[in-house]
Amino acid sequence: MPLHQYHYAVEKLSVAVECLATHPGDVRERLMAAFLGFHPLTEKDFPLELQADWRWVIKELSRCGPQLSHDGKARIGSFENTMKRIRKATGAKIAEKIYHLYRAVREYDLYRQAGP
């Protein structure tokens, strides 16, 4: 395994956490800004122990699915459509999970850097 295997996830999630903490607006608007920072991440960017949490975040962020036009093409993507519809309390739970994922993957990355 590469020494800095999870550094990319740490980097992307640190930007997301900063957006969640500092971006103006309610939690839905902050999640939209944060998503721009971490959307390139995939499940394989996380340790096995954290992959289920990552899947949960992505599932919750796209729960409503896309909004389709009359010809079946997506007018609004599933993420944006979900952010328009979710309650603030749900958004807060998602933001909290992103923060916990960031902390966990950062600790995992630091542990890997320290080595045996």
Number of strands: 2
Shape: globular
Give the structural class.
mainly alpha
Strands of the widest sheet, in order across it, are 1-2
Task: Count the DSSP helices.
Answer: 5
What is the mean predicted local confidence, pLDDT?
89
Largest sheet, strands/sense/barrel: 2 strands, antiparallel
Helix content: 55-70%
The helix/strand order is: HHHEEHH
Task: Tell me the fraction of residues in β-strands, as a range.
Answer: under 5%
The residue ranges in which pLDDT falls below 50 over 5 or more consecutive positions are: none
Question: Over all CA atoms, what is the radius of gyration?
Answer: 15 Å
How far the N terminus sits from the C terminus, by CA atoms, comes to 13 Å
Task: Describe the structure using short key phrases.
5 helices; globular; 116 residues; mainly alpha; two-stranded antiparallel sheet
Element layout with pairings:
Elements: H1 7-22, H2 27-38, H3 48-61, E1 67-68, E2 74-76, H4 78-85, H5 88-114
Antiparallel strand pairs: 1-2
Helix pairs in contact: 1-2, 1-5, 2-4, 3-5
Short description:
The chain is mainly alpha-helical and 116 residues long.
Characterize the structure shown.
The chain has a two-stranded antiparallel ribbon. It is globular, with a radius of gyration of 15 Å. Helix 1 packs antiparallel against helix 2, helix 1 runs antiparallel to helix 5 and helix 3 packs antiparallel against helix 5. It is built from five helices and two strands; from the N terminus they run αααββαα. The model has no long low-confidence stretch (mean pLDDT about 90). Strand 1 and strand 2 form a beta hairpin. It is mostly helical and about 120 residues long.
